[in-house]
Every structure is written in structure tokens, then in C-alpha cells.
Design goal:
The complex is a heterodimer. By secondary structure, chain A is mainly alpha-helical. Chain A is built from seven helices and no strands. In chain A, α1 (about 1-25) runs antiparallel to α2 and α2 packs antiparallel against α3 (about 50-75). The longest helix of chain A has 26 residues, at about 50-75. Chain B has helices spanning about 5-10, 10-20, 25-60, 75-85, 100-115, 135-155, 160-190, 195-200, 215-230, 245, 255-280, 300-320, 325-355, 360-380, and strands at about 205, 210. Chain B has one domain (about 80-380). Classes of the chains: A mainly alpha, B mainly alpha. The interface of A and B includes residues 64 and 126 of A.
Chain lengths: ~180, ~400
């Protein structure tokens, strides 16, 4: 009963955040509404007793992704003036694509549901068991992700590095690079 | 139950006694509400005491008296401050984004209060003993950055926005070493639960405790944690986000009245909670510093350590000058990050070298060598000397 009400409240919060992110005119407001959606998703995970997933969602999405979005908005456009139209001209096409994507996902989810929903005790996924799984059976994907992130980090540093040799090399080959 | 044990558990017993007046099905809820009330009353109380201590302490270091007009020795100053901020007009700039401007301080204080939920204040005195308690604290801490951005952006003031950008960049940079430096304690305990981390440090060798700070990796981790915590809470010498000589007051320039007080409260509560977690991770939480001092209640030790940490923060604020932005970033990415990563390796080596004196020598030598070498290399590139000013000379 209480669990059902909590679920409805969290779901309403999540959807309201998502709708606001799509409809609001100010880009920073949109980003902040998206953060509400992230928080709602984290609460849903927590309601399912998935502590690690819930906290990781808060740490990564609210602590990093939302900040990244907000910084990108501030660094690329003027902060603030609501100059964006709520609906673009291709809204019909967007609607069709969204509906098709939703239908595909819904179909996939419904197909993958087991015939009998397990009603027994929820499997206990402690942080320790998640860590053990990551370090044993899923160690290869973990390492691949780690290498990918390191490559991205080094790439970002190289892109941002001031090119101290450029004026000299330009002078040598006549600036024709 | 003996008298010392009773004194140790006095607040737990009090909670059980009060919730005993309610019907059985209400008792868990009442117990939780009582614990929440205790947290919401205690830590702002400590905040009030801290403001007096800070102003008195800074005054002492700067050869002046500090507040001495309200009450005996100026001790009632926080009451006067509270009444003042409650009665002041709440000014919202005409061009400000009213909704976000209102939400920012509320979200900040609410998020910081949540962090206290997993802080073990004494034996059996934690609101939620979560399996992933430490992760919860860091997740909550990360979400305060967004409210600081909200405050700076919604004020439509260049100083606010600059202060917010500085604060967010600094907090993101120092969050990495903060997390990594606390991972060593988790590695040694084998759990993210704050209660288990404290319990793992509760033994004694002779009269000396098994605190993590008394090991090479623990000491390095503790120093790195304190530096990152100072930066994370925007305390001096990392107080660029509100550098008053450059940015008026940083991201809360356009706040007045009680909203300003909320930011002030949030900042100090953040300091208290992060100091509390430093104590939990490295300084044995509520454990006694010597085995023969076990008769003092566990919560007493926690608050003694907390006030020690506050005194240290005040001392630093009165002593150190403010860093420059480039120094701040260089320090985070070129010194803190390599040292925390190395410390993780050292902690692993400590675990697998086995008992004996050899691991003490190896781990200390590696950390000391890395500290000296890294410091030398980084300092070589600095041009230290009289500073020249472009327009003032």
C-alpha cells in the first residue's frame, strides 16, 4: 500500500521532470528538470533495494552528467535569455520516431518478461557481491571500459594542450599546414 | 548494565524509552523521527558554537578581540545573528530567476542534512546503517554542486556566476582525490558501511588503538583526505569561490536575510559532516584514543574529535593565504591524484606483505620517496621569486 503510493509519487516526479525537460523554454531550466528525472530514477532503484545502482546513479548522473550538461550550455550559449521555441518545425517526424522507439522498447520488454513473475524473496545484491562479480566474471568488460575512459581522458588532455611548437613549425613550412 | 555502559548508551535508551509510549506498530517510525530530530538539533547547534569559536579564534590570531558585546564573552552572538537574519528583508534581484533562486539554498541544506544519516556518532548511534553508507555520503556530497550552480546562475550577477563556476570546477577536481583517498579505508575494512569501518578500527595493541591513521597508507590517505575535504568545503586556503577581494561573496552575493544564513549554515554543516567522515574513516570514529579511556562515552569521543577538527580548520584559516586558480588545479591533478593512486597500490601491498616490520618499511619508503620526488619535480617548474604586477609596478 505505502510502497505503491511511494512508487506512484516517484514515477510522477520522474515523468514530470522529463516532460518539463522537453517543454520548458530556458535551456538551463531544461537541464535542471532533467536532473529531477535522474533523481527520480535513483529513487526508483532505491525502492527496488538496489542501493549500489541508486547511489551510483546519483553520483554519476547528478554529480557529473548534469554538471557537464549545464557547463556545456553556459560555455556555448549565452546564459539565460529564453530564445528557444518550444516546438521545432519537424515535430511530426519527431513524434513518429518517438512513438516507434517506445513501441520497440515496450515490445522488447514485454517479450522478455518471464511467464511467471517471481514473488519470492528478492535476491540480495550487496555491494560486496557486486564487487566480487566485477572482479571475477566481468573483469574483461571492466578493463575494456577502464582503457576506453583512459583513452578519452588522454585525448581530452591532448586536445586541450596548448600547441607550443606550432609557430615554429608554421614558420618552417611557410604556414601551409 | 553498568553505569558507564548506561552513560554510553544514554541517547539510545532515551530513544527507546520515548518510543515505548507509542503503540508497537508506530515505534520504528517514532524512533526514526526522534533520531532525525536529534541530528537536526545537534549539528546546527554545533554550527552556532563554531561561528563564535571561529570569530574568536581568528580574532586571537589577528591580534584583536573578536565578538565580545552580546552576552558573557560574546557567547550569545549566534542568537543575535540568527534574529538579525530572520528579521532582515529578503531581497530577490529583479532580473533573477525567482524559482531557482529560491530553490538553491533549500536544496543545498536538505542535501547536506541527508549526509548525516550515515554518520556513526557513537556506539549504536547511526540513523541508517546502510550497506553502501559511504557511497551514499559521496553521492549526496556530489549533488550539492548543482545547488551551488543554481545559486550562481539564477542570481544573474557576474560575480555570482564566476563564483559558482569556480566552486563547481574546484569541487569536481577535488572530489576525485577525496573519493580515492577514502577508498583505502574501504579496502582494509572490506565494507562500505560506516559502522563496520569504525568497528574495524576498535581494537587496541597495548594501550594504542588500531586507527587507520597510524599506518603508512592510512596516514597518507588521511592527509590527502583532509586537503581534499578543505577544498570540497571551500575553506581557506581553497576559498577562491568566495574570495571577497575579487568576487564580493561568490555564488551567494545576491542572497540576503535568511537565505544567506542558509548558505552559511550549509557551508558549515558540510564542513562538520566531512570532518565527521574523516574521523570515521581514519581516526577511529567514536573509539577512545587509549585503551584505559574506554569509560568515557563513545559519543563524547566523537564530539571531542569533531571539535578538534574544527579547531584545526580555524587554525588553517587564520594561517594560510589563498591559492591561485592555476595552483589549485595543478595541485589537484598533478600532486593529489598521483599520490592517491599510489596510496591505493601501497594499501594493496600492505595487505599482501603480511604481518611483520618489513611492510612498515616498504610502504613508508615508497610513500615518502613518491612525496619527495613528486614535490621536487613539481616545484622545479615553479618560478618562485618576487612577484611582478603588470599594471602596478
Amino acid at each position: 500500500m505505502i510502497v505503491g503510493i511511494a512508487f506512484l509519487l516517484i514515477a510522477a516526479l520522474t515523468i514530470a521532470g522529463a516532460v518539463a525537460a522537453a517543454v520548458l523554454r530556458n535551456l538551463v531550466h531544461c537541464a535542471l528538470s532533467l536532473t529531477v528525472t535522474f533523481a527520480g530514477l535513483a529513487l526508483l532503484y532505491l525502492q527496488l533495494d538496489a542501493q549500489f545502482a541508486g547511489f551510483a546513479q546519483i553520483l554519476v548522473y547528478i554529480g557529473a552528467v548534469a554538471i557537464l550538461v549545464v557547463f556545456a550550455i553556459l560555455l556555448t550559449r549565452g546564459a539565460g535569455i529564453p530564445e528557444y521555441r518550444g516546438f521545432s518545425s519537424g515535430w511530426l517526424l519527431g513524434l513518429v520516431i518517438a512513438a516507434a522507439t517506445f513501441a520497440l522498447l515496450a515490445w522488447a520488454v514485454i517479450k522478455s518478461l518471464p511467464a511467471q513473475v517471481a514473488t519470492g524473496a528478492a535476491p540480495a545484491a550487496t555491494v560486496q557481491s557486486i564487487g566480487a562479480a566485477l572482479m571475477s566474471s566481468y573483469v574483461l568488460p571492466l578493463e575494456i571500459v577502464a582503457v576506453l575512459l583512459t583513452v578519452a581522458l588522454i585525448g581530452a588532455v591532448i586536445v586541450a594542450m596548448p600547441e607550443s611548437t606550432t609557430p615554429q613549425s608554421k614558420a618552417e613550412d611557410g604556414g601551409g599546414r | 548494565m553498568s553505569l558507564t555502559a548506561k552513560l554510553d548508551q544514554i541517547f539510545v535508551l532515551l530513544q527507546h524509552w520515548i518510543s515505548g509510549f507509542f503503540p508497537l506498530w508506530l515505534q520504528p517510525a517514532v524512533g526514526t523521527i526522534l533520531a532525525v530530530i536529534a541530528i537536526v538539533a545537534t549539528f546546527p547547534g554545533i554550527f552556532a558554537v563554531t561561528t563564535v569559536l571561529e570569530r574568536k579564534g581568528l580574532g586571537r590570531m589577528q591580534n584583536r578581540l573578536g565578538p565580545n558585546r552580546v552576552g558573557p564573552l560574546g557567547l550569545l552572538q549566534p542568537v543575535a545573528d540568527g534574529i538579525k537574519s530572520l528579521t532582515k528583508e529578503d531581497i530577490v534581484p529583479a532580473s533573477a530567476d525567482a524559482v531557482v533562486h529560491f530553490l538553491a539554498p533549500v536544496v543545498l541544506v536538505a542535501a547536506i542534512f541527508l549526509g548525516f544519516a550515515v554518520l556513526p556518532v557513537g556506539r549504536n548511534m547511526v540513523l541508517m546503517n546502510m550497506d553502501a553508507g559511504l557511497l551514499f555520503f559521496f553521492a549526496i556530497g556530489a549533488s550539492t554542486e548543482l545547488s551551488i550552480f543554481m545559486a550562481g546562475w539564477s542570481s544573474r550577477n557576474k560575480y555570482s556566476l564566476l563564483g559558482a563556476m569556480r566552486a563547481v570546477a574546484q569541487m569536481i577536481s577535488y572530489e576525485v582525490p577525496l573519493l580515492l583517498s577514502s577508498v583505502v579505508a574501504v579496502m582494509m575494512t572490506g565494507s562500505l558501511s560506516t559502522v563496520k569501518i569504525v568497528e574495524a578500527q576498535s581494537g587496541f595493541t597495548g594501550i594504542f588503538p588500531h586507527w587507520y591513521v597510524f599506518t603508512p597508507w592510512g596516514f597518507a590517505g588521511f592527509v590527502l583526505f583532509v586537503i581534499a575535504a578543505l577544498a570540497e568545503t571551500n575553506r581557506s586556503p581553497f576559498d577562491l569561490p568566495e574570495g571577497e577581494s575579487e568576487l564580493v561573496a561568490g555564488y551567494f552575493t545576491e542572497y540576503s536575510g535568511f537565505k544567506f544564513a542558509l548558505f552559511f549554515l550549509g557551508e558549515y554543516l558540510g564542513m562538520l559532516s566531512i570532518a565527521g567522515f574523516g574521523i570515521t574513516l581514519f581516526l577511529g570514529g567514536w573509539g577512545a584514543p587509549f585503551s584505559f579511556l574506554g569509560f568515557v562515552p563513545s559519543w563524547g569521543w566523537f564530539f571531542v574529535k569533531l571539535f578538534g577538527a574544527i579547531a584545526f580548520f580555524i587554525w588553517l584559516r587564520g594561517t594560510l593565504p589563498r591559492l591561485r586558480q592555476d595552483q589549485l588545479m595543478n595541485f589537484a591533478w598533478k600532486f593529489m591524484l598521483p599520490m592517491t593512486l599510489l596510496n591505493l597500490l601501497v594499501a594493496g601491498a600492505w595487505r599482501f606483505l603480511g604481518e611483520g616490520w618489513s611492510r612498515w618499511v616498504v610502504c613508508s619508503a615508497v610513500l615518502l620517496l613518491a612525496y619527495v620526488l613528486l614535490g621536487r619535480v613539481l616545484m622545479r617548474k615553479q618560478n618562485l621569486g618576487p612577484r611582478s604586477y603588470r599594471y602596478a609596478d
